[in-house]
Structure formats: structure tokens, C-alpha cells
Design goal:
The chain has 16 helices and 21 strands. Helix 11 packs antiparallel against helix 12.
């Protein structure tokens, strides 16, 4: 991929419509007239010339080399079409204007019929001048009309404060011992209490979720929802902590799900996991994964591990989360830098690339959700950083398989080798209803990357990881069946509840007999 394609993809990822590059000056990125943050250093004239020269035809290239201003339209790799103005004379200057339809400011109702494409007879529209442009800048290039495109994510500046109506509902749910609150247009609020959905007592149906969210649902977030995406957010709940939310559209309208979390990262010993995870933070570098199904407490365990590492090692902790959940206090000799995807950084891959230049000792990656993030996290783990992350996988073995499967077939052997070297441990956990009905208790599986396990990963024999777990007690390993059996023996959960958590009930029965 060419250098200009990389720059254009950054413009799209960060929600820009116009990028101004001038030799020696800080790049300026705009969405309409609003200037956005842009994580790109100033570039010199030779670099700007080298960036644009390969996409010019011979005639335009000769004019550009002679110092004349030139104009062209360029369709980038995975970035769409841009109108480009290039000035070859000093100071070298490039203006990149993205062709796109206007972004809606309100969330439209779903439509059944397709929107007709613009007619060829429609006149070309002209991009408005960007704020901050110099007075002597060339006039904007006329933009040809284009079909509506999904607006890209943009860095949000929405306030992290719950509106009064939403705050009352969240406080009500919290006082009832709920972990989650579910809202939908025209429906009564529901809360998740000890793992089960129940109506929120004495709460009237929600007329409009958008009205409850207020300024939290700003223009860029509305645009993402209108384009069919969900929006993640975090906000402060006075006297209770932080709330993680997800807002999305479904057939009946707008819906939102909120989870109340503590403000500060917990201590490992306060989680009552039934296993000591403190040794996992002793590694100098590598990858520590926490996996499990949705709602299994992965984020809480991850935050506790990172807190333990920060207190034990000090140094610089840099987190990339979507959104930021737990807050970390920096002990003496430590620094904490927390970045929210969509607010302080455009996406996980961009944030990870930035992180490798920010001198971190510890990295927290909220979720390894795509091949780019996985690849960069493994690279960071190999190059001297201790990386903590979560993954949606039910067991340690399936977590390994999911990472490898994220790569194209031709690169999976390389991925297995990289993972075999970088992985330090996988923690897979479930939350199981207590026997007395008073909440849930964690059952935790621990896989340590011993020499034997590393060989299994490298050779693609992940089916044999289950046997390594069963025989690896001396290395600090613990299969999920053993964790469940221990909870049964302690009288905390029932045998039936334990059996519902595993497919291989024979292993569970074996541990239950001892």
C-alpha cells in the first residue's frame, strides 16, 4: 500500500472530510468546518512530493515538478475517492478533500425502500472552505455528487455525565442490586439481577431513549447509529462509579444497555476468584489474556490484574479501551495514561501504533477484536511490553484458536509461532449462580504457556491443550472443570449449575468424585 493510501485511511478512520498538509507545518484535519485532532507529525517538502508523485500521470507530474499547482481525483485503497490539490513549489502543500454525502444530524427512522442514487443531471456541489485554511489557499475542488456512504467513526467530545432521567433509572437499578439496565423506546426498563432479567420496580415505559441520553448522543454518534453501527460510551454516575453503555437501533426503535462498574480498579484478592492470579503479572513482557462469555466479568478481572502489575512493577501504563471503564491510580514511580477509542484515539490499531512510541511498560488493550489489533498486540508483547487484553472465547484452547483463525490461511503458521512465543497465560472464567440465590461466583480456568503448551500452539495441536491443563497443576494450571468442582465442594454452587457450564461433563464428574 502506498504512503498516500495510508494517510487517506487515517483520514477516514478519524472521520475527516478535508486534510491540509503543508511542509513543516502540523497537519490540519477537518470534518466540515470543525477541526479534529489528528495524530500525524509535520512532514517536509520532499516527503510530501514523494507521497503524491506516484499517483500523477506524466503530464500532471511534469507540471507538479515545475512547481505549478495541479488538481486530480484519486480513489484510494479502502478509503474512497478524494479530490486532491497539490502545489509543487515551496512550501509544498497538499489539500485532500473526501467525496461523501452530508452526514445526518438526527437519527432517521429505518426505511424499507432504497434511497435513489443522485441523478447525473444534478449539478456538482462544492465543499465549504475549511476553518483555519490560509487566505492564499486555492479554491476548493468542485466535488461530484456521490451515493450516500456510511459515515466513519469520529473522535467524540460528548460529556461523560448522565442526564437526570437516565441517572434516576441507573441509581434505581443499582439500589436493587442490578448489574445491567436495558432500555428501549416505548418499553418498560429491565434490569439484570443476579444474572436474570427482571422489570425495574415502579418504572414507567421509556418514551424515547435519545431524550434520556441527551448530549451524550452527539452528532457523530447519531451518524454512526444511522449508518447501522452501535455506539459505546462511558459516563460517571455520582456516588456509584462509572457506567458502560451500548446504544443501537433495532426494529422497534432505539435501544441501550448499561452496566454499572466501580470507578477504581479492584484488588485481585477482593474478587474471590478461588485461584491466585498474582504470579501472572511477574513476567517482564508477553501477553496475558482474559476470556469468557459476555457478562462473565472479564473486564473486572483484567483491571485487577493490571492494578496488581502496576503496583508491583511501576513504570508507564497505557490503556486503550472502548470506552474507558475502570480508572487506575498511579502509585509512586508510575504513570497512567488512559485513552478511549473514539475520544482520544480513532481506533485500536492506531492507538497501538501510537503506544509503541510512547515508552509504555504495561499495555491494556480493552479487547482483541480484529486482525490488526491482534497482530499489533502480539508485536507489542514480543518487543518488551507486558500486554493485557480480553477476548470473547469460552475456554483457553478456543482463545488460542480464535487468535490464529483471525489471520489469513497463508499466515496462520506464522501467527501460531508468534503466539507461542508471546503468550504468557490465558484466564478463562464463568460466573455461576450461587446455591443460595444471592448473586454469582466466579469459576476460573488458568492456562500457563509452558514449554509443552508452546509446542502445542506452534504445531497447531490445540485440541491437546485440555490434557495439558489437566496435568499442569504444578505449573499453576487449572482446568475449568476443576474450578467448578471446587465451588461445588465448597457448597457455593450446585452440581446442576456446574454441569451447565461445561460440555465435557466426564471431566467434571471425575473431579467431583475426589
Amino acid at each position: 500500500m502506498s504512503r498516500i493510501d495510508h494517510v487517506l485511511r487515517m483520514v477516514v478512520r478519524q472521520g475527516g472530510t478535508r486534510l491540509e498538509l503543508e511542509a513543516g507545518e502540523q497537519p490540519r484535519l477537518f470534518h466540515g468546518k470543525e477541526r479534529l485532532r489528528f495524530f500525524l507529525p509535520p512532514m517536509g517538502g520532499p516527503l510530501l512530493r514523494d507521497m503524491v508523485r506516484p499517483i500523477l500521470d506524466p503530464e500532471t507530474g511534469d507540471a507538479f515538478d515545475a512547481g505549478e499547482p495541479v488538481q486530480l481525483t484519486y480513489t484510494g485503497h479502502e478509503s474512497g475517492t478524494f479530490d486532491i490539490e497539490a502545489q509543487g513549489a515551496e512550501p509544498v502543500r497538499l489539500v485532500l478533500v473526501r467525496q461523501q454525502a452530508a452526514v445526518p444530524t438526527e437519527i432517521p427512522a429505518p426505511v424499507e425502500a432504497a434511497t435513489p442514487a443522485p441523478s447525473a443531471a444534478q449539478p456538482a456541489v462544492q465543499a465549504p472552505p475549511a476553518a483555519g485554511a490560509s487566505a492564499g489557499a486555492p479554491a476548493p475542488v468542485p466535488l461530484a455528487p456521490s451515493a450516500p456512504v456510511a459515515p466513519p467513526p469520529t473522535l467524540s467530545q460528548a460529556p461523560e455525565v448522565a442526564q437526570p432521567g437516565l441517572e434516576r433509572l441507573l441509581s434505581h437499578a443499582l439500589s436493587a442490586g442490578a448489574s445491567d439496565l436495558h432500555l428501549s423506546d416505548g418499553e418498560p426498563p429491565l434490569m439484570r439481577q443476579h444474572g436474570r432479567l427482571r422489570p425495574l420496580p415502579a418504572a414507567a415505559p421509556v418514551e424515547a431513549v435519545a431524550a434520556l441520553l441527551g448530549p451524550l448522543l452527539d452528532g457523530p454518534r447519531q451518524a454512526r447509529i444511522a449508518a447501522g453501527s452501535s455506539v459505546d460510551l462511558a459516563l460517571n454516575l455520582p456516588g456509584a462509579g462509572r457506567v458502560r453503555g451500548s446504544v443501537f437501533r433495532h426494529r422497534a426503535g432505539l435501544a441501550a444497555a448499561f452496566r454499572v462498574i466501580a470507578r477504581a480498579a479492584p484488588r485481585l484478592d477482593a474478587l474471590e476468584l478461588g485461584v491466585d492470579l498474582a504470579p501472572l503479572v511477574e513476567a517482564s513482557h508477553g501477553l496475558v489474556l482474559v476470556c469468557g462469555p459476555t457478562g462473565a466479568g472479564k473486564s473486572t478481572t483484567l483491571a485487577a490484574l493490571v492494578r496488581a502489575a502496576l503496583e508491583a512493577k511501576g513504570g508507564v501504563l497505557l490503556t486503550l479501551e472502548d470506552p474507558v471503564e475502570y480508572e487506575f491510580d498511579a502509585p509512586p514511580g508510575a504513570l497512567v495514561r488512559q485513552r478511549a477509542v473514539g475520544r482520544e484515539v480513532a481506533d485500536f490499531p492506531t492507538g497501538l501504533r501510537d503506544a509503541l512510541r510512547a515508552d509504555p511498560d504495561l499495555l491494556l488493550v480493552g479487547e482483541m477484536r480484529d486482525p490488526d489489533t491482534i497482530s499489533l498486540a502480539l508485536t507489542a508483547a514480543e518487543t518488551g511490553h507486558l500486554v493485557f487484553s480480553t477476548l470473547h472465547a469460552g475456554t483457553s484452547a478456543s482463545a488460542v484458536e480464535r487468535i490464529v483463525d483471525a489471520y489469513p490461511a497463508g499466515r496462520q503458521a506464522q501467527a501460531r509461532g508468534q503466539l507461542a512465543d508471546a503468550l504468557r497465560a490465558v484466564v478463562a472464567q464463568r460466573l455461576v449462580p450461587r446455591r443460595d440465590g444471592d448473586g454469582r461466583v466466579a469459576a476460573v480456568e488458568v492456562l500457563r504457556n509452558t514449554h509443552a503448551v508452546s509446542g502445542l500452539i506452534r504445531e497447531g495441536r490445540t485440541a491437546q491443550i485440555a490434557h495439558a491443563l489437566q496435568t499442569g497443576a504444578e505449573a499453576g494450571m487449572r482446568p475449568i472443570a476443576r474450578a467448578l468442582a471446587d465451588r461445588v465442594h465448597a457448597g457455593q454452587i450446585t452440581r446442576e449449575a456446574a454441569r451447565r457450564q461445561v460440555e465435557d461433563t466426564a471431566s467434571l464428574d471425575q473431579y467431583l468424585r475426589h
